[in-house]
Amino acid sequence: MSERLRRLAGVGLMWLLGACAASPTQSPTLWSRLGGDAVVRRVVGETIDRAATDPRTKRSFDGVKLQVVKDKIVEQICSLSGGGCKYTGDAMDKVHKGLRNTEAEMNLMVRFLRDAFDGAGVGTSEKNELLAILAPMKRDIVTQ
Amino acid sequence: MRLIRKIGLAATLALAALTVHAGDRLPATGGAHMIEGAGGGGIVPWAFIAGYGTNRQVGGSAFFTRVRTEDFELDTGGVAVGIFDRVELSASRQKFDAGSVIPGLELKTDTLGAKARVYGDAVYDQDTPWPQVAIGLLHKKNRDMTVPNLIGAKDDTGTDIYVAATKVWLAGVGGRNALATFVLRATKANQFGLLGFGGDKKDDYSVQPEVSAAVLLTDNLALGAEYRWKPDNLSAFKEEEAGDVFLAWFPHGNVALTAAWAKLGATAGKDSQKGWYLSLQLTL
Question: Under an 8 A CB cutoff, do B126 and A139 touch?
């Protein structure tokens, strides 16, 4: 009986493996798990609007076309999270050149972004995975 | 003693002045305070600098901790100042109620700490495997050596020297942010210095490992565990490793509450001490 069970289990396992090989299940991209264009656009919009009005961070946005900034960030996040976009903006160090951004400003931006993701109901895992991708940009953004 | 009080007062004033503008590091990255006053977990120092000050800000924190086991109670409190996210200075006092060993016996230490961050950025360096590294000193003075001397302790003062490496993995464990710290500490302390330094069995420095790991269940709730090896210098009172499992809650950026279940092992002649650890901390 147990021999038969073992054989059955073996056949079942092979069938499962075969099924997996035949139709590989594609794991959804981070971009789609974040909620895609609609959610990311809303989150980035809120983050930039808040940063552009908060007295602690607004100086970097004075005289800047906010819509362009938002579009480029959405495009960049889409590109980095498997959404299939091509980032057409400048490199991070070039974008922030001369702004002399501080660590405090950087951390505040991260906080605003986290708050916006939480507000949009994006999952902890998705939020953290994106932050892990964005974090090393600090080296190009913070210059003092 | 007077020196410690002065430093404590200065640090408190510095903290008060800072309330005007608290630091802008990310919430929870100030960590908690270990019982010896350095920024870290409960019994293991971390490579983070206490407080929320960035590289251009001064931050700080104050804490009070109570540990209660079957036979003992330890109260510890202190303050720390973090300067430019580079240097941490701390002053703390430990009071150990050992009335279960000798009625009325209280063992006390004063501890001054200094820590310097020497490498890395634990939070933002997500594309490298390297941790943030800090080196530190904890200079301790036992205030009444009568009993420690009787059981063979050699000195009333001692200085621990440690290297702490801390790494954060964003989305590291099941999508949650995770953190781990590894410490090597050279020490002669008997029970954190509460039973003096050096002993009849051994009167030399020994290097002891310590580990601490935590997972941030949410951005303001951390679940973790720590383990710390310690020397065993006194033949009269066996000393063992200490460990704990903790839950640290940051209900507000500037307030942290830590509750832990701690295992202190054999302590001052009593077997396997286990109990609760509660800590309140204010961080700027």
Answer: no
